[in-house]
């Protein structure tokens, strides 16, 4: 028996490769599926099943393409109703894989089709649980995402999740290994651990939602407390996972390499969004006017999904050289398939062509400290939880996720300052604001980490009106 977790940090997502006696199962694959096929071929195995724990909201899964390429059936749990051919398993249905078995455990609550898959070894011993978004390490799946689809409240879904956990998951032996679909950084839960593998016993001891003495009412209250609105792209990804999508290889092949002059022409003719994915230091020093920065070396795909509202928006890319294909692929992971092409030769080709470029004004935290007596305007674009933990005294919370809703608060003429934790998110915010004509924005280098080393006063007091 061979179990491999294939973890993708950008999405905080775990896919799984399971092999026994030459037969392979893939659980929750990413959209680019060739690596799973290659892995099976290297091990002289054949992909027999593609298991989906639910209709994912935070990424486009690879089940449709993988089924087309291998002929393996797609398996969902009860209540799933995809537009494509799939096997809808019954609760408790057993699938044989070589010398082992995989049992579908219907665990609704996160979504109504949510299911876990219980692996038993060749001796029939309960060995591992692939828990999807039903159970994370440190948390459980948020119960608010499926409300509109099933016409239930988040409280009703949380109550169903409580029953699923106690009837199907907590009854398993403590030694059963837990392989979740996500870890820290995912928006599918609010308190996920950085660890990506655990056990039922550990979770019973440490996960707030699995307390033995917890009532259903307490569970509902705690699981629904403090939920932030889900990222805007979640419903779109659910639809793609449910209805199907194109092959990511075709999207990569269709993207064109444009020289600088042609790139500028295409941008003007198509009204495409110019997305610059280089390091934020490079974007600060020079970028194409009105381009938006979201760095590839960060939580790239989730921020794209949160900030680019229309997944059909045409996109032109400015990337580090030789990372063009990677960027297109990572956009497609969250359903952004309309990449027209990229700037051939990178930003240097734009400069060499003598075309106009823009910069971002940045200062150190010490410079901002020296200007505090001038009553300057400062905006904190971190998440509300970070803001609550500690923030600059009298500075409001302006989360990057909801920046468009705060545009009226930014000064039109006087300079104002942006900071996040370290610099990545504040540069995203600065690029968005500059694209909207706010050229009086100043980015604070090093973010709150640098601010903490100054004498600028901070507090953990939160006025409720400052948080969304």
Features:
468 residues; 17 helices; Oxidized Rhodanese, domain 1; 23 strands; Metallo-beta-lactamase, Chain A; alpha/beta
Descriptive overview:
- This protein has 468 residues and is an alpha/beta fold.
- The protein has 3 domains: 2-237, Metallo-beta-lactamase, Chain A; 246-352, Rhodanese-like domain (Oxidized Rhodanese, domain 1, 3-Layer(aba) Sandwich), CATH 3.40.250; 361-466, Rhodanese-like domain (Oxidized Rhodanese, domain 1, 3-Layer(aba) Sandwich).
- The chain is built from 17 helices and 23 strands.
- The chain has helices at residues 34-42, 63-70, 147-150, 154-169, 200-206, 216-224, 234-243, 248-254, 260-270, 280-285, 300-307, 324-332, 347-352, 365-370, 384-389, 424-435, 447-451, and strands at 2-8, 13-20, 23-27, 46-51, 74-76, 87-88, 94-97, 100-106, 115-120, 126-132, 177-180, 198-199, 256-258, 273-276, 292-293, 315-318, 339-343, 361-363, 377-380, 391-392, 416-419, 441-444, 458-459.
- The strands form 5 sheets. Strands 1-2-3-4-5-6 form a 6-stranded mixed β-sheet.
- Strand 21, helix 16 and strand 22 (441-444) form a beta-alpha-beta unit.
- Helix 4 (154-169) packs across helix 6 (216-224) and helix 8 packs across helix 12 (324-332).
- The chain is globular and about 70 Å long.
- The relative contact order is 0.09.
- The model has no long low-confidence stretch (mean pLDDT 95).
